[in-house]
Each structure stands twice: as structure tokens, then as C-alpha cells.
Amino acid sequence: MDDAGRLDVAKMDATAIAELYALIDSQQGFANDGLLLELCAEPSEADVIISNVRMRKRLERHLDWDIARQKAIVTPEWLRATVEQQHPVPCGEYAALEELHDETVQSCPACNLPVCKCSSSPPHAPPSTLPPTAVSAVGVPKLTTSQRILDNYKAWYACQRASPLVCPNQALATELGILRTHRDLEGKDVNALSYDRAIAIIKAFPRELTPENIDKELVQLPHVGEKIQSKIREFIRSGVIEEAQYLRRDERFQSLKAFTTIHGVGASTARTLYSIGLRTLEDMERYYDVPVDDYGNPKLEEEEPIFTPNGRRVPRTAKLPDLSIKTALALRHELAVPIPRDEVEEMHAIVMAELDQLQPGCISTIVGGHRRGKPESNDVDIVIGHSDIQNGGELIKGLCKRLVHRLYERGLVTHVTHLSGFHAHNALRTTHWDSLEKALCVFVLPEDGQQKRLHRRLDLIFAAPEAYWTAVVGWTGSKMFERDLRLWAKKEKGMKFDSSGMTRRHDSQLYFPRSEKQVFDLLGLEWIDPTLRNVDV
Ligand code: DCP
Ligand code: MG
């Protein structure tokens, strides 16, 4: 890597630190036929300790010497090389302390693999499955969200505030969310956005709102106009918002909400369906002519098998089936089941193992709600890049399509909604869609003989090295965090930010952030942990 020299200095700067965490983050739970890095809080549990401290006295400030002697203690270059080569590289030549060189070699995880790679000879090909390598960083502070951000709940932009998954006023946020959905379903976008902004403020508010403090607190908050203020007061006084209670029982609201749970159906289509007399999802199944099984349950249209004249079945290599509204309806019961975290990680591992067969050296980050700490996700979003900064763009070009075809041939992907090719970041583009290689798929894990595997939504986003970290930030969300990030970049910094890159507006200069922290730095924003970017309900 081009900035390797900088890491020789005793004290790392924030960017270098962020990059190290990002490298580990990009490999977490990533079985890629070889490399699985897990960050552990306790150095005593680590296989490898990363430090740029070179002297015993300084190391002892962070780490007990007896523990140090039982570990491989390496410089940050070891991590870079390991990620680049996609398997743990021999630790000896990366030993941080000369004094502990021999202990580092003895504890080297690469040496404990079936094929020893601790000699100074070039590394052998990695064996097909390697145990996870636990990594701890010593003397390197983990990126934390500052107290300043935690206290900044009155800030104008959501990307300056800390918003936890569950906030002290969560029930209020949920109730306001009903009103927000109603405005959205009725096409009142401006009103819906007002609710989005008010909800965002409530999500970051650090104390419970009570009848005693409400008058004092509410007037100080931005984005909460008089109308919404009165709804909030109503909730704080009575525990409910009457309009939300009414909407929950309202037939039109229920129908429109149900229709929009189907992939591909937006508010406007939902209103059209309602206006022609449809009320339930069963009505919608009949309208879209979804086939049913013997018990009347919707089912997928059978794919007609094709046979050769000799009776051999022709493999599934034809055009990928599209995730139409009809298919989404047939799969609606499965697609509505939330995906637990371990299943998200299992899907990720399988996708990356398949990808490694096509192109070694890819890196990835699970983004979306999962990264923000949601216990269950509605879909799985994965940003994929390449560890080779110089040639990574070329290496992953066209890979999205190839991967989806491979997954389809293996029966792992059943449908695809959107496949697109690379487009360079365009400073004039107004939306982030179509600027990266993306595939929005339906995925099903292979049967394991124990549990029924459900069809799941999977979004794959391929990014060239210069767009990797903007894609990670852009797809981590939540939606309103992203909206305000774009607005902040434009209004406060004269920049254009989206998932596909970052440009200075006046001269279209393209930036190349090397870590997620650097994206924040370049935007002049303080770091906010992904788990504190839950700006939406
Ligand atoms: N995104 C965005 N604007 C949108 C849609 C998505 O900025 N209109 C970004 C932010 C989202 C991320 O993409 O967090 C992933 O979108 P999802 O729809 O998958 O939403 P989440 O992953 O946040 O939640 P879940 O999938 O559990 O519903
Ligand atoms: Mg998601």
C-alpha cells in the first residue's frame, strides 16, 4: 500500500487507525475460503496483536508482558499483507518488537496452519479452509463516537447526531412513524419528510420526554413544527396519538400499507390498486394471477425443465428470472420473515466463498441495517470491492454479473431485479443509483437438512477501490442519515457525496477515501459509529 511508510512512526494518526479497523471490519465473518478476521477486545484472547509500538517499555503500558510473550505481535503491515493476500502471512518478518521476534514466530497463526508459511520463502497457496484469526489492536484506540456528538442532539443535520437503534422515546417515534407512513402512502411527500425530520430528532434525543419536561425541551429542537409538536404533546400526555390509533384500523391505510410490502410496489401503484377495488393481498394475488397450490397458498410458477433429445436435463444457464410483482407476491410469506443476524452472516460467507472462486482478493462489508446493529434485517446488503488498490477496479469490472450467474447456476439465487454495469461517478448525477455494479436478488441458502430455508432479498453492490468506502457509508444508512449526509456535503462543504464517490463541486475533483473514517474526515464530520446512525424509526 502506498502509505505503508507512514505507519513506521510510533504514533498512528486517526486515518491510519481507521484504516486498520476498516480492514479488519471488511473481513469479519468473511470465510472466503481462507481469511476470517475477528476483532477481539481482550489482547489475551487474540492470536495476533497489532501494534506499532517498538519498545518493551512502551508496550507494557498497554499490555502485560507475560501475555505479550505468548502472542504474535506484529506491525500494521502484517494486516495489510494478510488482507491483500487473503490468508494470514508469516508473522516473523512483521514482528513489532525485535525482542519478541521468536515468540512472535512461535505464535504465528500462519505457522499453525496445515501448511507452514513461517519460513522466509514465498508463501504457499492457502489451504481451502483456515481457522479464524483473532486480531487485537494494542495502543490503538478503537474509533469511538465522541461525547461531543452524543451531546449534539440539537444539531441541524442527522449526520451530526448520535441516533441509537432504540432511543429513550422509541414508542413516540414509532407512533409518529405511522403518521409518516400515512403521508407517504397518500403521496404527501413534503409532509412525510417533515415527519421524517421530526422522527430523526426524537431518535437522537437522549432523555425520556415527560409531561414535566416537554414544554422546555420541545421548543429547543429543530425540525419540529407546531403541528408535529402538538402530536408529540398528545402522546406524552396520553400515551397515544389518536390519529395513529385511527389509522391502524383504517381500511384504506391497511390496504395501501400491505400493498407496498410487495417488492416493486410503491405508494402510487398501491393507490391505483386500491382505486380499482383491491383491498387485500389475496385480492392482489388474484389480480396478478399468481398460481396457488392444492391448499390455496400462492406458489412460484414452475420453471419448465428443458431436456436434450437424449433425455438429459439442460442446466439452468438461460436468462435470469426477473423478480416481478407476481413473483414477489408468490414469495411474500417468505420474504416477509425477518432475517436473523447469524443467517445474514451465513449468506455473506457463502456469497464470498463463491466469489473467491471467480476472483480472489475481494473484500466485503455487510452494510444496511445489519451493520447498524439491527437484530433482524429485511434484506441483506453487501458492498464488495478488491484489496488491490491499483488494479482492483479492472479486476472487479463485470464481476457482479458473473457472480449472480454463478449463484443462479448453483440454485442460490432464484431471481434478480436489477443488474447494472459500472458507470464512473458523475458529479452531475442526482441519484446514487446506477453508478456502481449492483444486483438486487432473491437468494436461498442451500438446504442443511434441519431447517426450511426461506427465500431472502440480497443486494450486492460492487465498488471500485476509489468508491469502496463511499459505498460502505452510502449503504450503511439509515435512509435519513444518508439524506442529510448528501445535504450536508452540498450545503456546508460544496461537495457532492453519494455511494459512488465524492467530488468537490467547483472543480469536480474526485476524492479517494482510504477508509470509512476518511469519508467522515473529508466531509468535515466527526465520526459516528454505524450503530448510532439509526435515524429512521
Ligand atoms: N438507502 C438510501 N436511500 C434509499 C434506500 C436505501 O440511502 N431510498 C441506503 C440506506 C439504507 C441502505 O441503502 O440503509 C440499505 O437499504 P435497505 O432498504 O436495505 O434498508 P436497511 O438495510 O437500512 O434496513 P432493512 O433492509 O432491514 O429494511
Ligand atoms: Mg437492508
Overview of this structure, please?
The chain contains 23 helices and 13 strands. It has 537 residues and is α/β, with parallel strands linked by helices. The protein has a 5-stranded mixed sheet, with helices on both faces. A 4-stranded parallel sheet has the order 1-4-2-3. A two-stranded antiparallel sheet has the order 5-7. A hairpin with a 2-residue loop joins strand 12 (495-498) and strand 13. Helix 1 packs parallel to helix 4 (76-85). The longest helix is centred in the middle third of the chain and has 18 residues, at 341-358. The site of magnesium ion has 6 residues, from helix 18. Residues 167-534 form the DNA-directed DNA polymerase X domain. It catalyses: DNA(n) + a 2'-deoxyribonucleoside 5'-triphosphate = DNA(n+1) + diphosphate.
Give the structure's gist in a few sentences:
The chain has 537 residues and is α/β, with parallel strands linked by helices. Helix content is 38%, strand content 11%.
